[in-house]
TrEMBL record:
Its EC number is 4.3.2.3. Homodimer. This is Ureidoglycolate lyase. Keywords: Lyase, Purine metabolism. It comes from Stenomitos frigidus AS-A4. It catalyses: (S)-ureidoglycolate = urea + glyoxylate. One of its GO terms (molecular function) is ureidoglycolate lyase activity. It is an enzyme of class 4 (lyase). Coiled coil: none annotated. InterPro entries: RmlC_Cupin_sf, Ureidogly_lyase, Ureidoglycolate_lyase_dom_sf.
């Protein structure tokens, strides 16, 4: 099925406040600061944590699928200070995200993000030929906790990040 409509989504620069409905933005802090609410609040108790570096190759800025993980949080960050883009929709009990709730963020390479359990996400997207990302999720997340919605099938839409 081909897209009936191309919806553009303008990516905004991420801030802790703007990203709050979807998760956390984690920035550098003092080494001796005690653990607190500005640290990643992880939920990894449903399995074996998997922390790894994944190399992704540039694939444009268009997408027609959005995914969520309902058993764990997920942390993503680029290596080498490279900026990247991510589209998100808030977690909900609904089977599908609301198309009007999908927003996008530009994420600088000096921070990482933690996605709340159930946050819909598409990406990472970037303009470099490839980018290495560190990823923290569960060891079987992509096998047993990968709920994907086809925006093309359900809404007749393909999205493009600008």
């Amino acid at each position: 099925m081909e897209a009936k409509l191309l919806q553009t989504i303008r990516a905004q620069l991420i801030t802790s406040e703007s990203f709050h409905p979807f998760g956390q933005v984690i920035i550098a802090s003092s080494d001796h600061r005690p653990f607190g609410l500005k640290d990643a609040q992880l939920q990894l108790q449903n399995g074996i944590p998997h922390f790894y570096i994944m190399r992704l190759h540039q694939r444009g800025r268009k997408f027609h699928q959005i995914t969520r993980h309902q058993l764990c949080t997920q942390c993503l960050g680029s290596l080498e200070g490279k900026e990247w883009l991510l589209a998100v929709a808030p977690p909900s009990q609904a089977a599908l995200p609301r198309l009007e709730d999908v927003v996008a963020f530009r994420i600088p390479g000096n921070c990482f993000i933690k996605l709340e359990v159930g946050t819909w996400h598409a990406g990472p997207y970037f303009d470099d030929p490839w980018v290495d990302f560190y990823n923290l999720e569960l060891s079987d997340t992509n096998l047993v906790d990968h709920d994907t919605c086809s925006l093309l099938e359900h809404y007749g839409v393909e999205c493009e990040l600008v």
